Amino acid sequence: MLSLLLVASLPLFRPLHVNAVNIPRDAGDPLIPSGWTALGCFRCSVDCDNTVNSPGVASDDSGCNVPCTGDTTHNCGGADRVYIAQRDGGVPPSTTITPTSTSTSATPSSTASIKTTVGTWQYKGCFEDFGPRILQHQFTTSKTVEACTANCAASGYGLAGLEFGGECWCDTYLPFGQQFPDSECSMVCGDDPTELCGAGNRLALYQNSVATPPSASLCLSSQPPGTAVVPRNFQNTGIVAVDRSGNNGLQIYGATPVVTLGDTGPEYLLLSHCRNCPFEDVDNFEVSPTEMFVYARAAISLFPRVGESPLFVSFSQFRPYSGYCAFPNPISPTGPFIGFPVLATAGRVDLWSLCTNTTADGRLDVVYSAVADHPNYDLSACTPIYLELVPSYALPNN
Ligand SMILES: *[C@@H]1O[C@H](CO)[C@@H](O)[C@H](O)[C@H]1NC(C)=O
User: Fold this and answer.
1) Predicted pLDDT of residue 45
2) Which pLDDT band holds residue 1 (cuts at 50, 70, 90)?
3) Does residue 215 lie within any of the structural domains?
4) Quick check: CB of 272 below 6 Å from ligand 1?
5) Residue nearest to atom 4 of ligand 1 (CA)
6) The 3-state secondary structure of 348-395, one letter per residue
7) Who wins on pLDDT, 188 or 81?
8) Nearest residue CA, atom 2 of ligand 1?
């Protein structure tokens, strides 16, 4: 029988396998009845459900900040946070619990810290690893930063990531991954109690300063030949047009209908920066692996024609153009190993422009390989751009 008391605003049930810690109590803290010991505020580790199946991650107590409905002078957990107390002398759970790892503690020891330099490797931050893996290649190594980085270097990767106390992930490029405070990468490495190795859903990222950056024309969205790696499908992304000096980021809001052939005919759409156009949908583009879709595959890409806006069509029986790819970002402020991917067509990322379309009320349309003497735009007024594929957490909303 479980002997845990959960004080949560949401029906979340999480973590076990934590060591009791003494937390100073203040007004606002959960009321813990006598006979129970506060374990603290925890973040959901993998997903939230009603079974105890995954170790959670100790979190800052400030996240458990939602007042209890029955006693508003005290708190009852928070968004994505559960406050846990343990009954003194309770019987530990046994077979119903299947943690993904039992060898690591969720509670950082007071002496462990994030190593910022390991040989030629530099720590780059604590990143969320949720949904599709942000680094793709997992290896089994000793649970230390030294062992993982050495393994990634030997396997030809410039990036290494440690997660959940010692999982070792390697890759050549990090396209997405939201950065979080270092304090969230708080799990002690399984094989070295002095260092920290990420946490649940949190990857401590390292970059090898002597590694060669990935090829500028690496198709991140297609499956590398001969590997069992899941292709990266860049789904639910927005598109941001950045001028090629990297200055202005202008959001492409959606695909604007340009031709509709009757009620039952196909609809043709193009990409524009048009706030009030129909089908504005800021983060519903997909590149996977060499085709491009809009609105969760409701429209598929057609062959782009020189000088014209790329077209998408709403009928699935059209054959999608398969020359699209997501390439590393050539102007990433975070360097050649990390950054939002950019959209390539037929191996080029630098053929896109944003042009004022004079036949469409001056709408700003994306144009492929803009030409002089076009009836619908003036080439000298077009801005050469890259099209960045950006996850919703980083969209500028301009
Ligand atoms: C300009 O707008 C028209 C009308 O919406 C559209 O057909 C055309 O594809 C747009 N882009 C260019 C480059 O002409």
Assistant:
1) 46
2) very low
3) no
4) no
5) 360
6) ECCCEEEEEEHHHCCEEEEEECCCCCCCCCCHHHCEEEEEEEEEHHHC
7) 188
8) 360
